Structure formats: structure tokens, C-alpha cells
């Protein structure tokens, strides 16, 4: 059976990361609606007709995946305003035998460029190594999504190569860059996360 983790909230200096709840529906839809022109460039699920039924299905499946230890989706919320949805971030195991996993995220368009993705990814990277005990964590980023590549660079992930025509988005095949971090690299990266103010002090 896949390993599961506590459903408690995780915090950073600015953010609360917590599992999704059904009452998150409207705030999630509002974040998606206001961000579709950007999201639909990179994500297969983001399309103009995305609506209530699909969002409810995501919330239901997210809860099931957490319970079963298949994936851990976090709602990103500002600590001063926990009802406001900033975006999603997830970590999931890709191989139990190799203890490898992946992190994926999106941030609402009116909050990009504020360091939210970097701060949230720093915290979930800690979840991946410290709570899930992963050996290797990867990020896959669509070529052209320079903002996301900057997150990987700032957090110290190593650029390992190019995955050609990996994802089909509205009839177009997108290449992805592959970034990774190993468990023996993480402790010094974690120290730098504290220094940068992305993690809270012990």
C-alpha cells in the first residue's frame, strides 16, 4: 500500500497549504476562471468550458487520492485570508521501489511574480523528503514556461534534460524540461530555504 501522510495544514511565513475541502469549490473556480488564458497554454485540463462539475470531480478525487496515499493535493491559501485560493500544489509518488516522486503546481494569474510558487514548492519539497522519505523528486515544466523554470532554479533543482513532445495540450505537443533533486542534496537546500524566508524556523 502507498504511504500516506497527515492531513494537517502545512505553513510557510506567508501561506497555508492544506488538503482540499468540498466548500472550496467556488474559490477554486474563481481562481481558474481568472487564470484560464495562462493556464490553458500549459495544462491539458484547463479549457474555457471548465466548470462546476469538473471542479467537484477534482475535489472528490483529491480527497480519495489523499486517503489512499496516491497523491497529496494542497490548496494554497494566504495566511491572512484563508478563504482566498492562490493555486494548487501536489506531490505524488511515481515509484515506490525507487522512492521517487514528482511535484506539480499552478498559481492564479494575479498572484504570479510574487514568489508564491517558490515558497509553496519549497514547503512541499520538504514534505516530499521529510515526510514521504523520497529519494528523488522531479519537476516537469513546459518549454516556454520560464516563470516555472525560475522556481526550479531558485530552489536548487538540477536541470537534467528535455522530454520531447510529452504532453498534448489542445492539439499541440509540448516539450518539457526535467528538473530533479536527490535526498542527499536536500539538507543543504533546506538550509537555504530557511535563509531565503521560504520556510518557517524550527
Description:
The chain has one domain (10-196): 3-Layer(aba) Sandwich (Aminopeptidase). The mean pLDDT is 95. By secondary structure, the protein is of the alpha+beta class. It is 34% helix and 30% strand. Helix 1 (25-33) crosses helix 3. 27% of the residues are buried. Strand 1 and strand 2 form a beta hairpin. It has an 8-stranded mixed sheet with strand order 1-2-3-4-5-6-8-7, sandwiched between helices. It has helices spanning 25-33, 36-42, 52-68, 116-131, 146-154, 186-196; strands spanning 10-11, 15-18, 71-78, 87-95, 100-107, 136-142, 158-169, 172-182. The radius of gyration is 16 Å and the shape is globular.
Quick overview:
The chain is α+β, with helices and mostly antiparallel strands and 202 residues long. The protein has helices at 25-33, 36-42, 52-68, 116-131, 146-154, 186-196, and strands at 10-11, 15-18, 71-78, 87-95, 100-107, 136-142, 158-169, 172-182.
Considering the chains and any ligands shown, give keywords for the structure.
single chain, 202 residues, alpha+beta, Aminopeptidase, 8-stranded mixed β-sheet, globular
Amino acid at each position: 500500500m502507498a504511504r500516506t501522510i497527515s492531513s494537517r495544514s502545512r505553513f510557510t511565513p506567508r501561506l497555508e497549504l492544506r488538503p482540499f475541502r468540498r466548500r472550496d469549490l467556488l474559490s477554486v473556480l474563481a481562481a481558474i476562471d481568472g487564470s484560464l488564458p495562462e493556464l490553458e497554454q500549459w495544462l491539458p485540463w484547463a479549457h474555457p468550458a471548465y466548470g462546476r462539475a469538473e471542479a467537484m470531480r477534482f475535489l472528490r478525487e483529491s480527497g480519495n487520492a489523499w486517503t489512499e496515499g496516491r497523491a497529496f493535493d494542497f490548496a494554497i491559501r494566504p495566511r491572512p485570508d484563508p478563504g482566498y485560493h492562490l493555486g494548487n500544489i501536489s506531490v505524488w509518488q511515481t515509484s515506490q521501489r525507487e522512492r521517487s516522486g514528482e511535484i506539480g503546481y499552478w498559481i492564479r494569474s494575479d498572484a504570479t511574480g510574487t514568489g508564491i510558487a517558490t515558497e509553496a514548492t519549497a514547503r512541499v519539497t520538504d514534505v516530499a523528503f521529510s515526510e514521504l522519505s523520497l529519494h528523488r523528486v522531479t519537476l516537469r515544466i513546459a518549454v516556454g514556461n520560464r516563470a516555472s523554470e525560475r522556481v526550479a532554479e531558485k530552489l536548487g533543482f538540477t536541470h537534467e534534460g528535455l522530454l520531447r513532445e510529452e504532453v498534448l495540450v489542445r492539439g499541440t505537443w509540448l516539450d518539457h524540461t526535467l528538473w530533479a533533486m536527490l535526498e542527499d542534496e536536500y539538507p543543504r537546500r533546506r538550509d537555504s530555504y530557511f535563509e531565503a524566508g521560504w520556510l518557517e524556523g524550527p
